Amino acid sequence: MRRTQRRIALFALPALVGGVLMTTAPAGADPAQPAGAAGSGRSHLEDSEAVRLVRIKLTGADMLDKVVAAGFDLEHGLRRVPSGIEGEAVVTAEQIGELEAMGVEILGDDDSFAWSEEADGGIQTLGAQAARAFSHSDTVRVVRADWFTTKGQGFLYVEARTTEGQQANPIVTMQLENDSGAGTSFGSARTMSRFVDSGQYMFHRNLFKLDTRPNQIRVTSSTGGVTTGFVSSWLENGTPPLTANPAYKWDFVDGYRTPQQLYSRAEEIARQYPDIAEIVYLPNKTNGYQRKAQATIGGTGQAAVVVSSAAWGHEGGNGITVEFVNRPGANLPLTVEVAGKAVRVLLAKDASGALSSTAAQVAAALRTQSQGLIDRAHPYRTNTGTGIVQATSGPVALTDFLDEKRAGAPEGDVPRGPATIPVLRIGKHRDGRNPGVLIQAQDHAREWVPATTSLEAAERLVHNYKSDWETKKIVDNTDVFLILSNNPDGANYSFYNFASQRRNLTNHCADDNADPARRNSWGVDLNRNYRVGSGHDGYAGGSTSCVSDTFQGPEKLSEPESKNIIWLVEKYRNIKFMMSVHSNGGQLFWQPGAYIANGRITTPRPPLGDEAFYWQAAGRILSQVKAYRQTVVTPENVGGSSDVLYSSAGNVREDLYHTYGIYAFGWEVGGSVYNPATGNWQGGSFQPPWVGTPDLVSGHSETMEYANGIMEMFRVAADWGKDNKKPTSTLVPGAGKYSGSADVRFETSEPATIYYTTDGSRPTLESPRYQATEFREPGQVFHVTETTTFNWFSVDSAGNIEQNYDPTKNDTRNNYRTATITIAK
């Protein structure tokens, strides 16, 4: 099946400013259609298919996996709804029928949505404060209850879990009530939605609007369980952003930027600020913004032949002509004549004078007799080439289809050939002493805002270093590495040829998918090409189809762009933080990023201490995003990416965290913005208009608010690097005598991992780790029925160990923590 990519959510090419792109596509025009293609004399079979964005509804994650595996291009803005998953697909008219045949419901073309009073999506998170500590016997638990405000409207989001949620007969239902503030009674009972992913029960959830902030909630299960929980504030009390300082300089980026412009500015920054900036050039060159020249001759039947040049189009492939010639006479052999760049195939004729060359024979002759001009010739797609080839009306010119610029695209030729990717490195001390932060933007070519967001953050660092104390602390105490575009070939293709290009331009397709009409479907999804949780190992979310937008590549790390990332983190071992910036959807996530669909077996989840640190950092980062114009990345959109979005096999975050211990975030910028006038939330897009309604969707607003978040990530890293405070931990309710049994748990003063023993031995780094009750819940509860001594120590995210205990040495101090729970029978 042909894979067709998304064009853009707003159905018009956004205006670029600042000397880049100043016009928009004409009304009704398809920005994915190369200028001049119509009426060029080329076969319509080589035109890209018209696509449109439609809203769809899926019954659940299983259907989502099937639709993605079939090669459909789904928008990242997926939303969990009570009866399944809603999202957006970019499809042709023919593909709408294919989706419907798979059971997908087509909802229409509207790009806005209203919050339901039922749950509208999400995965539970760490840190909800229950009214009481969990008990080992609880059948219902409040995972989180969060209140947030945006544009004058209050929202309550709740996640709760029942230990009996997996049972399907009868299906467990749950009711949610809330008070109207401290001291008021519970009321407004609502049914919560049961969330099942890949056949596994996750939790129940609810999201709705309220006029008054509640203090507590009560959740009741149909099986009789009941619990209460306090309501926490989500992103309500963040630190003022750096931009709150009147003297702080910001708002530097005035339009979208091509890779050439991004790289040129990075190199200019290094020249302007040599005391704090330099360029690191990545060693593996990309495949290049280049294609072989091609033509499809003779339609699509058994007599059709697809021809590709040996040279790249710009190096001689363009301008080669191929002509199929019917000569007078009979009993004539199939031969090929070459004069300069003109190739004439003299078709064979039988004894009666009829043409007798098949497509397969003509293709073979072109490969062997074209004097090296033609590298690849074959029957069309899956044809066997048994049809008799007919003469053409004249020479057919081969082209790489890169010489026609889309209307309104930036002026100037795009460099052809392999590209070298520069990394802008910013830091006063670039010698490995400070924690490194890697910002990687535009893995996916069509995502233009991540590049401008990252450039804006770079500009703020260098322009404010000498005048702003907080910026100086960042530059003095971190080592920042910025890859402003990790996919320059694909990004150029998105700017100049096909706005919806997602992947790089490396064509791994065999003959059945190598004709020029497939040209918008070639390439590797760079964020599926890594080694951990790979589709090559059976994890879901990566495709083996070379024309799928999630094509994982022929092998792990097959692409130079992904090899470069591994080279960078291995060469600069001080890199301890990473943000892979994408769009759109407004999610912030980390590990686990992938799962094996059968049984929903995820890659290893981070230890409880790392999970808590991720959440702590996320709260800081997202508070800064909200500070710009109250854009709230909601709690259901934060956490492990396989829980928040879907399984994405072979993503970069997974590899960097599990292989190198790097705190690796993924960010889908461009979250939904609440419109108080309509009561709806407006979703983002890959290429929103640069200048739009300030309070709603625009490339400029997204760039500014998410640059706030990147700056805060730098501050998180700087604080981490200076952290030498030892964590403390306690066993709650603590040592003592208990009658019959006791429920105990650990608490820490900060995000920290606890290693413990209960057999009297010294705890080490090989001892059991204190775990969450369930994924992204608070820590487990030990139900103690026999006298037990707990020995333990805690380690925070920066590696500080409680009480200076050394778990690697068997010394006499034994200064680990210990507590004995004595059970009286």
Structure description:
The chain is of the alpha+beta class and 825 residues long. It folds into 5 domains: 51-110, Alpha-Beta Plaits, CATH 3.30.70; 140-233, Sandwich (Immunoglobulin-like), CATH 2.60.40; 255-287 and 415-722, Zn peptidases (Aminopeptidase, 3-Layer(aba) Sandwich), CATH 3.40.630; 292-397; 729-824, Immunoglobulin-like (Sandwich). It has 12 helices and 41 strands. The protein has an 8-stranded mixed sheet, sandwiched between helices. β33 (673-675) and β34 (680-682) form a beta hairpin. α6 crosses α12 and α9 packs across α12 (699-722). It is globular and about 110 Å long. Mean pLDDT is 88; it is low at 1-41 and 110-132. One of its GO terms (molecular function) is metallocarboxypeptidase activity.
Q: What's a concise summary of this model?
A:
By secondary structure, the chain is α+β, with helices and mostly antiparallel strands.
Describe the protein's topology.
Blueprint: E1 52-58, H1 61-69, E2 73-74, E3 79-81, E4 84-91, H2 93-101, E5 105-108, E6 112-114, E7 140-150, E8 153-162, E9 174-178, E10 187-191, E11 193-197, E12 200-210, E13 216-221, E14 226-230, E15 232-233, H3 259-272, E16 277-281, E17 292-297, E18 305-312, E19 321-325, E20 335-339, E21 342-346, H4 359-369, E22 374-379, E23 396-397, E24 422-426, E25 436-441, H5 449-464, H6 469-477, E26 479-483, H7 488-496, H8 560-571, E27 575-583, E28 587-590, E29 595-596, E30 601-602, H9 608-629, E31 638-640, H10 641-644, H11 652-660, E32 663-669, E33 673-675, E34 680-682, H12 699-722, E35 729-732, E36 736-739, E37 742-748, E38 752-757, E39 782-784, E40 788-796, E41 817-824
Parallel strand pairs: 7-15, 19-21, 25-26, 25-27, 27-32, 28-31, 36-41
Antiparallel strand pairs: 1-4, 1-5, 2-4, 3-4, 6-34, 7-8, 8-12, 9-10, 9-13, 11-12, 13-14, 16-24, 17-18, 18-22, 19-23, 20-21, 24-26, 28-32, 29-30, 33-34, 35-37, 37-39, 38-40, 40-41
Helix pairs in contact: 5-6, 5-12, 6-12, 9-12
